[in-house]
Amino acid sequence: MSQVSVIFHSGYGHTKKIAEIVAQSAHAKLIEINSEGDISDTDWQTLAESDAIVFGTPTYMGGPSWQFKKFADTSSKVWFNRGWSNKLFAGFSVSGSLNGDKQMTLSYLQTLAAQHGGLWISLDILPANTLAATRDDLNNLGGSAGLLVQAPSDADAEAIPTGDLKTAEAFGKRINELAAKWA
Ligand SMILES: Cc1cc2nc3c(=O)[nH]c(=O)nc-3n(C[C@H](O)[C@H](O)[C@H](O)COP(=O)(O)O)c2cc1C
Fold it and tell me: Which of UniProt's keywords are assigned here (predicted)?
């Protein structure tokens, strides 16, 4: 039996909604980084016991939130002992704009996984980019390195387009299947 953890920060609830969908679909434990950028000792233990770790953060000013970065910097203690070596990793980011420089955030998450000696799980869903494509389609934002989500900046998480929610669900399923193979 594999164990997956989704660790995320969310300032205003949008990333939290996506984290919940990914976690439910991946049968994962959900760990929220608090507003001070901290998680509990129990949470660190949960991460240590996980076969796959999924990183989630909003894109703020073209990168992860400072709270997520504080968590990442704190993980240097684990890094030093190679505690997460050979685990699976995946990532997602939510931003206000369709593009919004989310790729910068995903690249950061991928690099963080590589620093820890992990193996990165891609999205593996063809992009919906034809004339007929809509925001209700799977992977309509055309991601590949991870899950991209856009949340209108003047609305709460309920306004996140259906296609992005469906993509989050599919990504969680993929993570669960790969973790089961890897464990
Ligand atoms: C400080 C700050 C910086 C932001 N920077 C970006 C950005 O670089 N690109 C973008 O598209 N949206 C940006 N946004 C919008 C957020 O990414 C968007 O509202 C997102 O849904 C917030 O997720 P959350 O509710 O989980 O915090 C920014 C928002 C804040 C508060």
Answer: Flavoprotein, FMN
